[in-house]
Amino acid sequence: MGERTVGGPVAAISPVQQMLASGTGALLTSLFVTPLDVVKIRLQAQQTPFHQALGRESAPWGGVGRSSKWKCFLYCNSLMDHIYVCQNGTSCSSWYRTPTHFSGTLDAFVKITRHEGLRSLWSGLPPTLVMAVPATVIYFTCYDQLRDFLWFGLGLQGCHVPLLAGGLARLGAVTVISPLELVRTKMQSRKLSYSELRVCIRSAVAQSGMLSLWRGWGPTVLRDVPFSALYWFNYELVKAQLCEQYAMPKADFSISFTAGAVSGAVAAVLTLPFDVVKTRRQIQLGEMDSLGVSRKGTSSTWHIMKDIWSALGYRGLFAGFLPRVIKVAPACAVMISSYEFGKAFFQKVNLDRQRLAP
């Protein structure tokens, strides 16, 4: 599925095959992007050690009064955000605490590999594979199913179809994964066993209801749904234009890669303010979890955005512009080209089966 003709999808593949293709793409993207983010965080760490950053980063939107003991930082490899919790900079992941000095990105790659081993470049990969791969599988499979249903089932035409399908698919994926992400964050921040975690979740549900399992859902939706809608809108548009320009009936790997990079960069820039707010809110909630502080007083997304605008102006809402584009564009390119390659593989397998069938 995924290619349009007058009659319908070409060489339709099953949802299971779509899941396998998207799962493989998510795995490859994780393997490719994780080292880039590990190096980025290590470079940031030597510039502003946690014991210096504790008081600096919590205001004015931190909202946590007792931040002298705990500090959270956000690690994102473009598939998934990870909250790590540090106590006076001592309980961080070992790869973050390592005091090696780096003069630049290339130097960091060389020294990490030489002194800490190649595996250190993929620190944080296990939680990504556990959480991000299922989320990506749900997201990409739902997108293809929804898009083809709108195109061929309802007969809708126009560029708004990928926009709508992308937004709805991401909304569904975020809603399904959000409680699991909350559980993972609690286990990581409080070092809870499974039995303690069960008691903690039951207590939260009893006090605040089932909706408490979807804390942080709003900021995630505000960032990810517009990003996905814009991404798929631009991807289908750029892919169609490139196919037309090079007189190709179907997108090959290079076209998918280029369209994915361009559309990912555009969506990353346009949704950057929501990404900044989501990062602040995730760190805020992570610190409050680690401190055992009630979340009732947490700021809303729009309140955090207003505070950032008041303190730093529009530049504050577009902080991290270049790093986000540099990271998101290749991640989107690798993910979508791998996914399209996987779908093309299964389409060929299905066509071969049809030819061989009596």
Automatic annotation (TrEMBL):
UniProt keyword Cell membrane present: no
Gene Ontology CC annotations of this record: mitochondrial inner membrane
Source lineage: Eukaryota, Metazoa, Chordata, Craniata, Vertebrata
Record's protein name: Mitochondrial glutathione transporter SLC25A39
UniProt source species: Xiphophorus maculatus
Principal location listed in the UniProt entry: mitochondrion
Catalytic activity line of the entry: glutathione(in) = glutathione(out)
Repeat (Solcar) residue spans along the chain: 13-149, 157-241, 251-345
Keywords on record: 2Fe-2S, Heme biosynthesis, Iron, Iron-sulfur, Membrane, Metal-binding, Mitochondrion, Mitochondrion inner membrane, Repeat, Transmembrane, Transmembrane helix, Transport
